[in-house]
Amino acid sequence: MTAFLVIAALFVFVAVEVIRIQMARKSGEVADVQPVRAFTDIRLPQGLFLGDHHSWARLTNLGELKVGMDELLTQAIGGIDTVDLPRVGDRVVAGETLATVRRGGRSLKIASPVTGTVVNHNSGLERDGSVIEEDPYGSGWMASVWPEDLGESLGSYRVGAKSIAWMRSETQRFCDFMSDNASPESVGAVLADGAHPIVGAAQSLDDEAWSAFESAFTN
Amino acid sequence: MVVAVILVSLFFFLAIEAIGLVLKRRQGVVEEAQVTAFSDIQLPKGLFIDEGHGWAWLTETGELRLGADEFLSQAVGTIDHIDLPAVGTKVAKGETLASFHCKGREISLNSPVNGTIVATNDTVMNSPSSIENDPYGSGWLASVWPVEHTEALKSLKVGEGAVAWLENEVQRFVEFLACKTSPELVGATLPDGARPVVGSALALDDEGWQEFRKDFIA
To answer: CB–CB of A149 and B160 under 8 A?
Structure first.
């Protein structure tokens, strides 16, 4: 009999709790919890060329370079809303602005990995840049560039294992940068375990630190 | 009357010509073998090449697809049989990747990179002529996972530089043939003095063939 009462009481408590949560959800008191996501493991394909500006290039067999931004930048700013792309026919210069990405009122200039003429661009990104976060090295490409001197351009890139090692050390550099520049109260939210930054971490920086981030990682 | 006679005789001549052609065909008389000159360089600008006339294409996943360039395939003209290493074999830059057997002669293509064979092209093993027809496409030989990518690619030529180098190789081959070819063979190798004939390396005598292998492919 006692056991029966205990079980019945337990059931009542659980039922009350469930109903309370349901009602709270309906009235919007409990927001759906946004999961805190850490940076994903590096998933850079080994067939890409990577320079110093966190922009990548893929060489087509015709000799054109498809270019885009890498996952470190995308994750640092927590995704992309819209992108300002270069026009077809524009000349872009290695290390100078290729595109400007916008996220939550802030913008970041992405440097071109190569010097050449823009022959195509991924115009869908101008309205919706979210595809860059989903597929940074595939459908998130930004432009196709006909290079002025392919041999010279490719001479300064990393490929394969070397790129992946560099991305790793850059992720660590970003962690260190955040530790040095984030305000004390946001540090805990930024570096969950000290090794994997939280997606969107750079958004917690003040304006001055954001500029420092831009020049430290995209120039 | 005159018109009728002309028409009849015309018909008569045509009939003789037609019978002659049919007879020729039955006897298996072949039209004179066509002499084809080297075509303009078609190397795609996104391919890397090395000085042994092997090319490499970097795939998205980081594998390198390897093959023989158009200079090599046109110089020999006919490839009867290809020996390729098995999947899993390690290849070294500058050492044999594939052996081509051409009319009783043999030539080795050296690997442009260090790595491990991860795939070979069965199609090209079964029909080696795809190297002549499509050296940079269906005529690929093997895929390799390189020991290291960055420095390996830096040591190769790409883009305009690769095309210019290949054009220069054709010119060097013209000069080589002019020196090595006996007067009676000039028609088979350099009929107009500017472009080599496809297959002219096989027209050389044994000594010339050995020198060709050493000077151009090694």
So the answer is: yes
Average pLDDT over residues B184-194: 72
Best to test chain A binding among B114, B147, B158 (most A CBs inside 10 Å): B158
- Does residue A110 carry a pLDDT above 50? yes
Q: Would you give the end-to-end CA distance of chain A in angstroms? A: 75
ipTM > 0.90 for the complex? no
CB contact under 8 A, B150 and A149: no
CB of B57 within 8 Å of any CB in chain A? yes
Q: How far apart are CA A171 and CA A178, in angstroms?
A: 11
Over 50: is that where the pLDDT of A136 sits? yes
Give me the amino acid identity at B61. T
CA of B154, closest CA in chain A: separation in Å? 6
DSSP letter for each residue of B54-94: EEEEE-TTS-EEEEE-HHHHHHH----EEE-PPTT-EE-BT
Sheet bearing B54-58, strands edge to edge: B90-91, B115-120, B142-146, B64-68, B54-58, B48-49, B157-158
Determine the CATH number of domain B39-218: 2.40.50.100
Q: Which residues of A touch B138 (CB under 8 A)?
A: none
Choose between A219 and B183: higher pLDDT: A219
Domain boundaries, chain A: 49-158, 162-218
pLDDT in tens, B29-67: 444 556 788 989 999 999 999 999 999 999 999 999 999
Strand ranges of the sheet holding A82-84, from the earlier edge strand across to the other edge: A82-84, A97-103, A106-111
Minimum distance, in Å, between the CA of residue B44 and any CA atom of chain A: 5
Interface with chain A: mutation pick from B47, B49, B55, B58, highest number of A CBs within 10 Å:
B58
Residue spans per domain, chain B: 1-31, 39-218
Which residues of chain B neighbour A157 with C-beta distances below 8 Å?
Answer: 150
The string of pLDDT tens digits covering residues A19-32 is 666 666 555 555 45
CATH number (3.40.1410.10, 2.40.160.10, 2.60.130.10, 2.40.50.100) of A49-158 reads: 2.40.50.100
Q: Which whole number is the average pLDDT over B166-179?
A: 92
